[in-house]
Amino acid sequence: MTTDLEVRPSDYRTSAHPDWCPGCGDFGILNAIRQALAELGLHPHNVLAVSGIGCSGKTPHYIKSYGLHTLHGRALPVATGAKLANHELTVLAMGGDGDGYGIGAGHFVNSGRRNLDLTYIVFNNGVYGLTKGQSSPTLHRGVKTRSMAEPSFQDAANPLAVAISSGYTFVARGYAMDTKAMKEILVRAIRHRGTAMVDVLQPCPVYNNVLTVSWYAGRDLASAIPRIYNLEEEEGFDPRVADPDDLDEVNAKKITAIARSFEWGDRIPTGVFYDIDLPTLEDGFRSHRPDAPDSAVYKQAVPGQDVTPLFNRFR
Amino acid sequence: MVVNRLSWLIGGAQGSGINVSAEVFARACKRAGLNVFSNIEYHSNITGKHAYYRVRVNQKKIHSPVDRVDLLLALDRETLFGDVDASHQTHRGHVRQVEPDGGIIYDAEVGVTPEEIGRDDVRLYPVPYGEVMKDGLAAGGVDYEPRRHDIMRNMISVAASFALLEMDLDVIVDMLRERLGPDRQHLVGLNELILNATAEYVYREYGTDFPVNLEGREAGQDSLLIRGCDAAALGKIHAGCSFQSYYPIAPATEESEILSSVQSEYPITVLQGEDEIACMNMATGAAHAGARAATATSGPGFSLMGEGLGFASMIETPGPVLSVYQRGGPSTGLPTRQSQGDLRFAIQPGHSEFPHVVMAPGDVQETFSLTFKAFNYGDRYQVPVIVLMDRFLANSFWTMDKLDTDGLVIDRGEFFDPEDDDYRRHLVTESGISPRSIPGQAGGQFVTSSDEHNEYGKISEGILNRHDQVEKRMRKLARIDQESPATDRWELHGREDAELTVVAWGSTKGAILDAIPAVKRMGMTVNFLQIKMLWPFPREEVRPILERANILVLLEDNHDGQLGQLIAEETGILIDRKLLKYNGRPFSQNEVEVGLCDAAEGEAERIVVSSERMAV
């Protein structure tokens, strides 16, 4: 990671104006990403933002780093290949809930298993916005949003629980309307060595008339207390696994995190749920093949490799 | 007495070691300085189903299987008689393939009688495998332990064959000594006991009456016995490929296994993905980030890669390279069997219109060279490149003096100018090629998108921009057409003014080259037009050759004659006479000989080889 304290959020600003709807949670996430990258002092040319398809997929167009707007659901495999090709890059993968937990669900699970050093940000709004508001894999059963003909008859998946079960070593939830907290989570996620997954609750002001800013703020509740709260301010909660070799601690922290991830309704936890240091995919490659030449840094001039030593295998 | 011309076949249940026997036999013959071709036929099954391995040995270079069998090695009853007890019999065994005066070696302990075999015209050589094993071990003072020693039954098959063929066992012993690692040298002696006991038994019981002999020639130590998948892997390494993704699938997996096995020696990372969609996109991501990247698959996985292929082409990634090994389809089809059924799909592997390259090597050397060059095409034109191979090319072994690396020079294409303060990743140029920057390079930042985009890579739905970008991308095909050397694209084997012109692509090359002398002996002059670059199709170069030809015969391992369809589309020339095969087995030399003669005589426009004689 090349760092420089001189980098400012404005260095990540582009001339293109986001074409998101007014009031969209995506603006908050975009700002949080720019601020986090600047705070980490990362030079824009060392950052690759890889996105899927949907409103969130357009985000790399608004970040002045290297950006790759890929296919629906495929941000993670593209990001995986890019990171393995050049491990000096800071790679951010991003996409929506339909993108990551629906069409890209297989990649979501298997990327957790690999623990490559990258960050995955999911803009989770419960609907497919760009196709006009169909239900997404995180919309709860029985919920009917504006453009749906009838309530959803399919259950919601719990992405945080799936992430923890799949091996993600840093699992967090942010709230798009709280840019400051989001930025803090992203700084920790990008710093984390391993695959960090950040699910972001992101109100869609046009199609999701159920999970609104007002609802997250708890304005419908008698207490009028915001539903969103910071898990890490709860007494006794610590997402960090102190000793990754202590299976009892690992399991206890996982179980607590998964239990908290099912909390929904009047209180919705945000913050870091689970955080553990484990060997990354590259560590695995490296420890298994200590003498292997480095394949993971791009080189403009690829040298042709001499294959004649391999001929012996065929003699 | 026939010398140095042998067709040998071993059959048995999958998992019973026929691969080991055949590969030791084939390699030992190669090391004795003979030319070897070998190929396996097996079921999509781990253990128990019938498999067989053919090894053809000759004085001169050979490239394909033949139908006849001179020496059959049967490890079970099914190899002899077929799956007679099956509810739906699928084959009738190999006894009927044995040439008159040929031989059958079988395990005398399987309980087969000469009457059952029912061939008075062939020589029977029952060998009691268990007894030979015990005697051999006893001669060395070793007590027989089935779990430790039964694996050496494979050596009995090899030694019995060597004895009948009057070949020296030393070549096998030397090979074992060389190939077994330092910690396994004690096995050399054990194997030697079995080899000697077997040879002694065969000499004692049967003498040296077998009418085919092999005579070792100058040392074949340095030549290679190598498969297409080996050559593809070596081509990738030679090209500096540093990333390969794959999802396990027959018959593509071996290539990735070879690449995995050299990760400690070469700068390459091999990653098993969760599916072919992931693998395609991982390779694209790696290529985008500066690696020479590749993936390997066969038909079903290739179907899943279509989405990613269009994406790679849309964002103008340099590559990736896709090694596609065709197998019988559609759907799951015949997972372990031969086909050339994916040509048209490879030409149009995804929705809408985008540039890409499809190359089809016909042999091991071409597989190595074209795989290497595929990376150059990818880098130079910023397109995905498909190297279209097949099961037969992947798994068959050919004898090669070496793999020729002459003329293989790395070309990474055009890079951006860091001084350019208005860098446009998708700059509209006359060639269609826009200089590229690589993530990590200062000043080269760009975003690009699977959405239609402008020169800067930003999403754009503008009408004029759409025209410019579509035309810019597609111009690359014309540029490839102009710049590619003919040697990468097509080859006319034989004299220009032949009476018969065979038109084919891919791995049928070997059987065609082997068959041409026989057709010539029938009194006809023959040449062979091999298409190596299927897309962009070399229409201007190929059309005059087709127009000049007298009788055209298309030869393909598929039902539709897909190359013929492509040629018709590209040149307007219809090839009426077709020699086709789609039963999941490769063309043999004999089938091509007979088929070409029939086609030349105009027997029928469409000749389909069903290989009843070989139907195993």
Summarize it.
Chain A is an alpha/beta fold and 315 residues long. Helices cover 29% and strands 16% of the residues of chain A. Chain B has 616 residues and is an alpha/beta fold.
Give an account of the 3D structure.
The complex is a heterodimer of chains A (315) and B (616). Chain A has 315 residues and is α/β, with parallel strands linked by helices. Chain A contains nine helices and ten strands. Chain A has one domain: Rossmann fold. Chain A has helices spanning 26-39, 75-85, 97-103, 105-114, 159-166, 179-191, 213-216, 247-261, 281-288, and strands at residues 47-51, 66-69, 90-96, 119-124, 127-128, 134-135, 170-175, 196-201, 228-230, 268-275. Chain A starts with 25 loop residues before the first helix and ends in a 27-residue tail after the last helix. The mean pLDDT of chain A is 95. Chain B folds into four domains: 5-222, 3-Layer(aba) Sandwich (Pyruvate-ferredoxin Oxidoreductase, domain 3), CATH 3.40.920; 229-396, Thiamin diphosphate (ThDP)-binding fold, Pyr/PP domains (Rossmann fold, 3-Layer(aba) Sandwich); 414-484, no CATH class; 487-614, Rossmann fold, CATH 3.40.50. In chain B, α1 packs across α6, α11 (276-288) runs parallel beside α12 (299-314) and α18 (509-521) crosses α21. Chain B is globular, with a radius of gyration of 26 Å. The two termini of chain B are 29 Å apart. The model of chain B has no long low-confidence stretch (mean pLDDT 95). At the A-B interface, β1, β2, α2 and α4 of A face β9, α9, α11, α12 and β17 of B.
Described by the principal axes of the CA atoms, the overall outline of chain A is globular
* Name of the CATH first level of chain A: Alpha Beta
- What count of structural domains of chain B? 4
Mean pLDDT of chain A: 95
Q: Which strands sit side by side, in order, in the main sheet of chain B? A: 7-6-5-2-4-3-16-9
Structure classification of chain A: alpha/beta
Percent helix of chain A: 25-40%
Shape of chain B: globular
